[in-house]
Amino acid sequence: MTRTKLSLAAAALLAAAACSQGSETQAGADAPGRALFASICGACHMAAPPGSAAAKMRTIGPNLWGVVGRPSAATDFDYSPAMRAARLVWDEKTLDEFLTNPQKLVPNTRMALAGLDDPEQRKAIIDYLKTQK
Ligand code: HEC
Known about the structure:
Elements (H helix, E strand, L loop, with lengths): L1 H18 L13 H9 L39 H6 L5 H9 L1 H4 L13 H13 L2
Helix pairs in contact: 2-6, 4-6
The site of heme C (HEC) has 28 residues, from helix 2, helix 3 and helix 4.
């Protein structure tokens, strides 16, 4: 009995954890970069299809749905003058450079992230973003 109660509690916890990822879509749900994105980028960003309920939420950074292959500063987000002037296309290379050191690729960007040193983490996050389109 106690054991059953415990495993029920564990199942409830797992379900709650899954629900807290509410803005995630099914595509890419098992990509290794998903958890990294949620923990490192998720404080400021979402990747949610335009028009979805999640996409209407206010976030500190722009919606990253479909960002891979997209020109920089292309959403209706209130970008910094630096990002508006950057004129980049977000592909694997520019994203990798940006995530390594945002201020180096886009000096004065408002994205307050020091940068990710681990190339594998960057690749996993970029691979995950490729699925969010
Ligand atoms: C502390 C908040 C914060 C965190 C954490 C953060 N970002 Fe950002 N990000 C922003 C803001 C704000 C902008 C807009 C920057 C500007 O206008 O200069 C931005 C812009 C971007 C852009 C450009 C989007 C476009 O439409 O041109 C990309 C790509 C991006 N972030 C990816 C990421 C990824 C991937 C992570 C996690 C590794 C991350 N960011 C973590 C706040 C954040």
